[in-house]
Design a protein that fits this description.
Blueprint lengths: L8 E6 L5 E6 L1 H6 L6 E2 L7 E2 L1
Length: 50
């Protein structure tokens, strides 16, 4: 029986140009977010809250 530790968490992200995309994030980042939070994602690094 799975313990849920390997479940994927996805965010629906809307970019400043109006486009949107689903991105996968780790559980600790997922748990820290609330609806309406803004994030910053630089190429090659994990996303962070703004």
């Amino acid at each position: 029986m799975p313990d849920g530790s390997n479940l994927y968490h996805y965010l629906d992200v809307t970019f400043t140009d109006g486009k949107s995309k689903k991105i996968r994030v780790n559980r600790s980042f997922w748990d820290s977010l609330r609806p309406g939070d803004q994030i910053i994602k630089q190429s090659g690094s994990d996303p962070v809250k703004k």
